């Protein structure tokens, strides 16, 4: 008998960010810019997903429709991704923000939208959270 839990994914994994040209993003210190993300198997991810679904239900109750402006869609995606983000590497700065405020700001900024896109894609692949995974 094989216990399936031996195949369980890690709670977090580190994504090395790439620029819009698919080249690694490096900080002023020459180190890779990274983001540590909670896996789809983690409690934090489940909480972020539930909050996303609750926002949608609330909107449907209020308006009776699910039409979103571009700004609303970006804000909601940023909220979800922020809820799935443990932290950014210490060599990343964005207006001096930290924690969840930093995550929301980065994911909401369409001029660096490639970051949110990478994070969303990374979260969608369970294989990125197998033991020893650091993906770029």
Write structural notes for this entry.
With 136 residues, the chain is α+β, with helices and mostly antiparallel strands. It has one domain (11-66, 73-135). Helix content is 41%, strand content 12%. It has helices at 43-63, 70-83, 99-108, 113-123; strands at 12-16, 34-38, 85-88, 134-135. A 4-stranded mixed sheet has the order 3-2-1-4. The model has no long low-confidence stretch (mean pLDDT 91).
Helices and strands, with pairings:
Layout: E1 12-16, E2 34-38, H1 43-63, H2 70-83, E3 85-88, H3 99-108, H4 113-123, E4 134-135
Helix pairs in contact: 1-2, 2-3
Task: Please summarize what this structure is.
It contains 4 helices and 4 strands. By secondary structure, it is α+β, with helices and mostly antiparallel strands.
User: What number of structural domains do the residues give?
Assistant: 1
Unreliable residue runs: none
Count of distinct strands: 4
Q: Could you describe the largest sheet, including whether it forms a barrel? A: 4 strands, mixed
- Proportion of strand residues: 5-15%
Task: List the secondary-structure elements in sequence, H or E.
Answer: EEHHEHHE
Principal-axes shape call: flat
Write a concise keyword list for the protein shown above:
alpha+beta
């Amino acid at each position: 008998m094989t216990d399936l839990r031996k195949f369980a994914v890690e709670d977090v994994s580190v994504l090395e960010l790439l620029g819009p040209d698919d080249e690694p993003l490096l900080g002023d210190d020459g180190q890779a810019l990274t983001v540590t993300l909670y896996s789809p198997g983690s409690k934090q991810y489940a909480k972020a997903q539930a909050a996303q679904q609750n926002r949608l239900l609330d909107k449907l109750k209020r308006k009776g429709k699910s039409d979103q402006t571009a700004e609303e869609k970006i804000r909601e995606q940023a909220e979800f991704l922020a809820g799935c983000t443990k932290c950014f590497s210490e060599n990343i700065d964005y207006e001096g923000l930290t924690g969840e405020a930093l995550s929301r700001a980065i994911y909401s900024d369409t001029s660096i939208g490639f970051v949110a896109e990478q994070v969303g894609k990374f979260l969608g692949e369970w294989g990125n959270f197998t033991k020893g995974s650091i993906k770029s």
